[in-house]
Amino acid sequence: MKRHFHITLAAMIWPGPIDGPHPFTLFKILTPLLIIWIGILPATFVMALFAALTSLYFYEAVMLEGSSDLVNKWVARLPNRFEKALRYGTMSSLIPLVLLTGPFPLAISFRLLDYQKSKARLYLILGSFANALIWTGVVWGGGLTILTAVIGKISLL
Predict the structure, then answer these.
(1) What is d(CA 11, CA 19) in angstroms, rounded to the nearest whole number?
(2) What distance in Å separates the CA atoms of residue 5 and residue 69, rounded to the nearest whole number?
């Protein structure tokens, strides 16, 4: 029962393309709210820390005994290119995947590649911070800054 709970929680942390692209995930809701509430740089750090902690939990959950069947089912539901990158990728080929999609696919790839645990944890933390810098800092932060400027100019007219 405990193992099933951890795997279910892991699936809820990163629904990603496993169950189809969800328009709203925890990260997509929390990121703009944090940027509006505390600013771009603090939100980037908070999201990086949150992503690092949840990706480490996700990694440990997919490493549980008996979870390999579920992980294989998840990977089979991913787009072909994504699945090939996870199954046959090397560390250097997985870096762009982490920067674009986050550390959760990297956790699955470490499970499939039977990667060394200590290195996997380090790369998950580094990947979380790199991904948060790109997505929270640049994409969401830049987008909300531009949107605020446009709304400000429209209201002046």
Answers:
(1) 9
(2) 16
Handedness of CA 112, 74, 100, 60 (dihedral sign): negative
pLDDT of residue 24 exceeding 70, the answer is: no
- Positive/negative CA dihedral, 7, 20, 144, 155: negative
Spatial separation of the C-alpha atoms in residues 57 and 63, rounded to whole Å: 10
- Mean pLDDT to the nearest integer, 135-146: 90
Q: What is the pTM of this model?
A: 0.77
SS3 call for 28: helix
Within the chain, where are the H helices? 2-13, 26-38, 40-62, 68-76, 80-88, 91-101, 103-113, 117-132, 141-156
Q: 62: which residues sit within 8 A by CB, 6+ positions away?
A: 7, 10, 70, 71, 107, 108, 111
